[in-house]
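In response to the reviewer comment on reproducibility (Comment 2.3), we provide here a single inverse folding case reported in full, input and output, so that an independent group could reproduce the run without further information from us. The structure tokens appear first.
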């Protein structure tokens, strides 16, 4: 069974399951790629920590995670 994206997943898990998400992360100015905290931070944590537009970021992630 294929995993489905949800906001409670860690940033690391999202980038590992859907490598296209790496581009989304970088385009939104996040430095999650290679960050040791990425395995603990959820999407909500990353949005809050970096002060980015959560709706726009989540929409972009949904587009690449199918």
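Designed residues, in position order:
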């Amino acid at each position: 069974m294929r995993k489905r994206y949800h906001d409670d997943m860690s940033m690391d898990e999202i980038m590992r399951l859907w490598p296209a998400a790496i581009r989304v992360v970088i385009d939104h100015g996040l430095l999650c790629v290679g960050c040791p905290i990425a395995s603990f931070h959820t999407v909500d944590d990353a949005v809050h920590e970096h002060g980015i537009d959560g709706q726009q970021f989540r929409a972009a992630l949904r587009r690449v995670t199918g």
